[in-house]
């Protein structure tokens, strides 16, 4: 275990499918030396902690603790917030907003009492609205509140591009931006396979990523969570891996470009909105937005996406 890992604690609020899977992914990747699970349901959180501990022989050395009191999160470097109403089959993420915003307003001050130096990482949906609520409830500088945003959406996009192109996913660089939801925007203008723009990728003398194909891929990314939820009730494995990766980037100060949700200030006319854009992420939290210049139609789509998030926030008086 590295020295950086040896001094780090991650606290995860919510021991349901998402929270427990994030804990599991962090355990097997040795993201931190201590993983703390907090949930008001003592029987559930205790069972999750026991189950994780029972696999300790087969994973790197990580201390796993849990409980139904917020004190278990004390002195965490990052607090991941997954608690909240769960998305039901066919339900939009925005439909969850009211209940989950109220929960954040009650929970966040208590978390900061025990972990005042923590970076807060909301995962609860609708994540852009919840990120706004956490930022408001915490009073923290914007760089210390990082929503999970479209990190997972971008992974889905890269997987679909790689499948069509017949290359490994690591050879693809592409981002989903805007809302983590129905108005998400694929940034095709900045999408590459190796050093080749996705729109120029050719196989057998034929251009692969036509407008039709790109449209199909974009719709598949947006619909992905609905399909998983319809089949098994929740998404958990991919978001668990995505958040373990994001936590590793933060705790090990890897300074990678990731499409996290954070407060946007004057990006092509978008300001005062928490939404996803490719940003530099490291130990200090969410850094500068990548100096990307989307295509004109993408900028317009991003403005529309920002407007939807802003309206939802205003309706909730955020």
Automatic annotation (TrEMBL):
PROSITE patterns: L_LDH. Pfam families: Ldh_1_C, Ldh_1_N. Residues 9-147 form the Lactate/malate dehydrogenase N-terminal domain. This is L-lactate dehydrogenase. GO terms for molecular function: L-lactate dehydrogenase (NAD+) activity. It comes from Kutzneria albida DSM 43870. It comes from the Bacteria. GO terms for biological process: glycolytic process; lactate metabolic process. Keywords: NAD, Oxidoreductase. The active site is at 180 (proton acceptor).
